[in-house]
Amino acid sequence: DIVMTQSPDSLAVSLGERATINCKSSQSVLYSSNNANYLAWYQQKPGQPPKLLIYWASTRESGVPDRFSGSGSGTDFTLTISSLQAEDVAVYYCQQYYDTLHSFGQGTKLEIK
Amino acid sequence: EVQLVESGGGLVQPGGSLRLSCAASGFTFSDYFMRWVRQAPGKGLEWVANIKEDGSEKYYVDSVKGRFTVSRDNAKNSLYLQMHSLRVDDTAVYYCTRGGWEIRYWGQGTLVTVSS
How far apart are CA B80 and CA B21, in angstroms? Predict the structure, then answer.
């Protein structure tokens, strides 16, 4: 089973500053035949289901602001918010879909400093 | 517009059973893998079960194997999760989700509370 580990567990960033969340998988989620990383990022606000932000590690979902970006490959991935806005306060999750278990990271709580 | 509407949650005693349903609309249901994902109160997301488009393949997280059964009725555009031998740690919001890879569509969830 692939274990996803996010860091940090919580993060406080000033408005307008950069926020960086890391996600590490216990084995590579890069599928060699298509050179694709089977990894997604989600944002969840209280009382709501998660919202897809990024898939294939770096493809931004339609309608997601371009301050959100994903990077990384293999086992190490990063979600970056280039300039934090008040509405970005949420919990962020990474998820691998390389194997059938589709495991999630434990979540990173992002707050305003 | 894609819609996923869960129902069937509620309060059940440990050892009891419950059947969750998910009514899908706005897309061709039989063309998509479907999944159940759950979230315990104040906790993170946990994938529970997958079912292939035609129902021929099903996958479960270890903690529910032998107790939960995922099924679908493509004629009714519906996904189900039959849950037996429920435990306190099964308490969660259960989300119905669409898709085989990234999860673009989520229902609003139905709360299952297992308590005596």
Answer: 5
Six token digits for residue B39 = 């979230």
Q: Is the CB of residue A16 less than 8 Å from the CB of residue A84?
A: yes
Residue with tokens 């063309």: B31
* CA angle at B87 for the pair B85 and B93, rounded to the nearest 5°: 110
Place of tokens 């997601």: A64
Interface contact flag, A40 B100, Cβ < 8 Å: no
Contact A93, A41 (CB under 8 A): yes
Mean pLDDT for the stretch of residues B93-101:
91
* Span A17-45, average pLDDT: 97
State the nearest Cα–Cα gap between B3 and chain A, in angstroms.
13
Q: For residue B77, what are its two tokens? A: 């555009």
Least Cα distance to B58 among A69, A89, A100 occurs for: A100
Distance CA B45, CA A110 (A): 16
